[in-house]
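Lay summary. Proteins are chains of building blocks that fold into shapes, and those shapes determine what they do. In this project we predict the shape from the chain. Here is one chain we studied, written as its sequence of building blocks.
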Amino acid sequence: MSKTEFELLKIMFGNEFDFEVKKFIDLMIDFKFEQVLSDEFIFKYFANFEADKLNTSFECRIIGICALQTFVKQNWLCSQVFVSEKFIQHCDRIFDSNQILFENDEIICSETAVKYPCLLNAALKCFKQKWNCSLADIMWYSRSLITNQMILAEPSSRLYEELKLAALRFDDFINDFDAHENFELKLCLMQCCAEFSQFFLWFKDIQNADKYLKKAISLSEVSVQLIGNLGKRTKFQSKPTSLLTVDVKRNNIRTFDVVKSDLSSKMPTNIELNDDTLLKNIEFLDLKADLPQICPEEEGVLLASVAFSLKGGPYGDELIKEEALAFLEYIIHNTSTWSLKYKALYLRSLLETETKKIERTMMQLNELVDSYKDASQDINKLNLFYCAFLEPIWIIEKNFADCLRSLGCIKSALDIYMKLNLWESIVQCYQQLDRKDKAEAIIREQLKIRKTPYLLCLLGDITQDLSFYEEAWNLSNKKNSRSQRSIGDYYFDRKEYEKCINHYELSLELNSMQLNTWQHLGFASLETNNYILSAKSYRRFLQFEYDCFEAWNNLAKAYVKMNDKPRAWKTLQEALKCNYEEWRVWENYLLVSIDVGAFDDVINAWHRLIDLKGKHQDDDVAEILVKVACNEISIKSDDFQIEKLGEKLQKLFGRLAANGLCNSKLWLLYAKLLLYRREDIDKIRDQMMPVAAKAIDCAILRRSAGRDKSPIPAITSACWKQTIEGAQKKMVFGPAGCFQIGCSREGTNLSPTFTNDL
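And here is the predicted shape, written in a compact code that computers can read:
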């Protein structure tokens, strides 16, 4: 048992253990949890045990810890545990086997894979009654909650809310411990914060995950950063390039009892890269060999940081992936903790599924499955297990099957899905093979064995028959969110948005953690002009999926329709943070910015649109900008500076003119801006005249192309009149028409006024 886990036990039971407590503590330190559960002392306690009147006695806590750890050993680490039949009978007598694990429509991810669910039930019941008595009680209760969630097929709003309550109580305790100088206690708190960060990250609660990760980092005494170092990545590379590598700095010099020798045979195998081009590992020219040592708990915080960057950062960001891979390689090659190395290898495999390293990914995932089952790896696999946040073996196997399926190995993937009874994945495989008949036959066969709402919903997905969803809804006593969601999806796919809204709302009342359903509800409400519901739905969705620019954009549209343009403007800024390259969002941002008077942002958005599209034209927006710059529209703002706006607007017009993006109106507006901003008569004449001439040229060209039916004299007269009116405000002309403007388009010199049509 690690020092941090021992610290938790001391917090829970006190520093001085009596004889009975010490006996069980010693067994737990040696990871002999099953032996504790078989002790006669525990059975005597069970004899007087009343589930509804649990207390904080050490027996109850010990049962909870040992039951949870035994459940994890069996279902995560594939250690063949022996649980006495007597203990199971006591659990069945005291606890309802489905009371805690499954509420409403919650179902187990893989029923064939989960062994001894009574152990998890016992742990949850033991921790739940007095979970807030100490920091250790909170942590073990939170661990049991997330373990419960990991075996469920879908996120549970019930478990999420309970986890948030535990986190709030945890905050109260950790504030009291901050001033302590005990390094072991500091490591314990750091590990607990990293665990909470991982727990919330699983629910995609980025805000809370970030909060606890920052707290863990603040408790750490190390700084781990990426630096550039010259090295070679490929076998044929002659010139080294700058590549990412990890640099570690310690605030306080410490030494740790970390034994790394003779562990290779007991640790998960790192499959080496076998590629014709890429080297097995990056070869750096000058790499530090004496990096400061970091302890396993600090490695756990680093791993939590990597997991957060991958799940909390922009999806598909290549730079984030490269940085994550550098950190993962550091952990893989330096850690002596089984769980941390396992998780680092797993995360690396997920990152490499879309690269040319896919072959290594396949082999690595297969190796990870074998590592769970490998009895020779008798190293303590539970050390930092919750900090590493390992997935259960059936999820690893499912990801391996998903990888096979993506490569076209459908038969091999199906074999794994069938072994795990992953019916939804089985249906998807047969649909991919265009064998819906086979998928339907398999589900109907399972329904003959046992009729469940889940299987009925799958049959409805295959046949697109609404009656199966209705049957599932009735079978569940109207508690099955999946059936209502499926009915909503049925209407949504057919663009019958009015019909799908009620079904989505019913589904979300039962389980509010269905993020895609929130997104669909937001869009359907937007299409049916229910803007308040749309805004509510998108806000809920973005609370967890904050990097979805489409959702931010649609939320802004809802605010615009609600006439809340300042809020829409801020919302579009969030959309641009998520996707800086989407021209449609920039166009919306430009229009909303002009409405809220953010004129600098209008000009910046216009420049960005030219960068993305090569052109952009909006005469109405340009006219408003010029009127503001010419002080024809008064702006009531202390921060507004008309001179700076004029400078920026002139640069924008200059760019439009240089790239041939001005029409006649934009040329006239450009001339008007120049006339207003110039005090020198000669400069006005030199700059305004060519601009006015361009305005007339564009107007005549527009008529020649058939887009304007006005006669040429009327066009030129109108252009000239606007120019003269602007010029008269700046300088005095002679009699009207004392000079002429050349118009090469028609091959003649045109005077400012005409009396006849051409």
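What the prediction tells us: The longest helix spans residues 681-704.
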